[in-house]
From TrEMBL:
InterPro entries tied to this protein: ATL_DNA_repair, MethylDNA_cys_MeTrfase_DNA-bd, MethylDNA_cys_MeTrfase_DNAb, WH-like_DNA-bd_sf
UniProt keyword list: DNA damage, Methyltransferase, Transferase
Record-annotated Methylated-DNA-[protein]-cysteine S-methyltransferase DNA binding domain positions: 10-88
Coiled-coil parts of chain: none
Stated name of the protein: Methylated-DNA-protein-cysteine methyltransferase related protein
One BP term from GO: methylation
Annotated source species: Thorsellia anophelis DSM 18579
tRNA processing found in the keyword field: no
MF annotations from Gene Ontology: methyltransferase activity
Length: 121
């Protein structure tokens, strides 16, 4: 049986991802937290995996919690190329510093406060 998500949750996730600006990234876990499911990082990956091939959503701006691309093969190369073309800096296949290219989704961060968000501590 295929996994399904309610459209409201999926739309929130897609809105959050579409808000990541060029040259910045966010992790699966951060997106899940902002969407209201703090343990839903894998769900974010599932949603992204099932996007149509011709999507204009910047799916490639989503990386794992270590700042690495979690895809393999041709998909890895495609994501890496998109990020390099946007100016994201990598060293040994991960970003040079964990938050150098990180983006705090300010407009959608209603669930976080400066005390609880790891990027604002």
């Amino acid at each position: 049986m295929a996994k399904t998500f309610d459209n409201e949750y999926k739309n929130i996730v897609l809105q959050i991802i579409s808000s990541i600006p060029q040259g910045k990234v966010a992790s699966y876990g951060e997106i899940a937290k902002l969407a209201g499911k703090p343990n839903g990082a894998r769900q974010i990956g599932f949603i992204l995996k099932n996007l149509p091939k011709n999507t204009t959503l910047p799916w490639y701006r989503v990386v794992n919690s270590h700042g690495r691309i979690s895809l393999t093969g041709e998909n890895y190369t495609r994501q890496y190329t998109y990020l390099i073309n946007e100016g994201v800096i990598f060293k040994k296949c991960h970003m040079t510093t964990k938050y150098q290219n990180h983006f705090l989704l300010i407009g959608l961060a209603h669930k976080f406060t400066p005390k609880t968000h790891p990027l604002l501590r």
